[in-house]
Structure formats: C-alpha cells, structure tokens
Amino acid sequence: MKIITDFASGFMGLFQTGGKTFISWMSSIVPVVLLLLVLMNTIIAFLGEERMNKLAMASAKNPVTRYMILPFLAAFMLGNPMAFTMGRFLPEFYKPSFYASQAQFCHTSNGVFPHINPGELFIWLGIAQGVQKLGLNTMDLAIRYLLVGLIMNFVGGWVTDFTTAYVCRTSGVKLSKQVDVSLTPDNA
C-alpha cells in the first residue's frame, strides 16, 4: 500500500510543481510575450502589408538576405508558424531552402525573442534555469544562441540550395528562379 500512496503523492506532486511553474510564468514571461506580440502587430500595421511584401521580394535576390535577414524579420514580425508565409514571395527554387532556414530560426531565437515560438518556450526556460543555477547570465547564452543560429541557419539554407539543384537535375524537374506573386488559387 505504501508504494501506491508514494506513487500517487509523487504523481500529484508533479502536477503541483507544474501548476507553480505555470503561475510563475503568468507573472513573468507571459506579459513579455504578449507585449512583444503587440509590438510586432503594431510595426506590421504601421509599415503596411504592401511594404512588407516588397521587403520580402527584395530579400529574395541574394542568399544573405534570403536566409539570414528575411527569416529573422519574418520570425520577429510574424512568429511561428506564420513566419513561413514569407516564403510565398520567393521563387519556387528557393522555397525549400527558405523553409529550412526559417524552421531553424524559429528555435534559435527563442531566448532573446520568446514571442517567436512560445510553444517551445519551455525548452529554453529549462536550459536557462540550469544556466542560472550555475550563476551565469542567461542573456549571454541567448545572444550567443541567436548569433550561432543566424550563421547556421544561413548555412542550412544555402546548402539546401545545392540539394535542391541536385534533386532538380537528377529528377528532371525545373523550378523557376523568378518571383511570381501573382498566382492565386483561382488562377494558378
């Protein structure tokens, strides 16, 4: 009987600890995420969707803007998963590479910009808690993670360009390298 009661107590303790953690987030990280989302929406409303579209199309012209700057801006302005929608302004050939770069960036920026991927914030908070217990600054780690992420996401996107070219060549598929945002579901 003691084993059953110990198990039940431990099981309930797990949820009590989760509840305490949730309440602490409600007074610390949730307001920050909420205010970052408000800022992001304000910037988009101020700039206008048309300007955002023009920025994305201009970013498609070279690998640095395509796999470093555009994913950063898309993640910061739109968050995950909406950041992937900026890929619609890229030529078909570059969409797989943008997706690879964007998917990684939504993870590597969470420490500095928690509004980008709040669904995975618990991973960053777990790492940050360990770093804090060591007496180290979590923002130093977050900035390093962001910077390494920017470089590695660029490399991942660029390598995917070569992979896409190889797959196109071996399969006989030809993907356009010209931007065409005029296609809609009605006339595609």
From TrEMBL:
Q: State the EC number(s).
A: 2.7.1.69
- Keyword Transmembrane tagged: yes
Q: Which InterPro entries match?
A: PTS_IID_sorb
Which GO biological process entries does UniProt record here? phosphoenolpyruvate-dependent sugar phosphotransferase system
Which key words tag this protein in UniProt?
Membrane, Transferase, Transmembrane, Transmembrane helix
One Gene Ontology CC term in the entry: membrane
Gene Ontology MF term list: transferase activity
- Taken from the record, one Pfam family name reads EII-GUT
User: So where does this one cross the membrane?
Assistant: 22-47, 68-90, 142-168
The molecule here is called PTS system, glucitol/sorbitol-specific EIIC component
Q: What organism is listed for this UniProt entry? A: Lactiplantibacillus plantarum CMPG5300
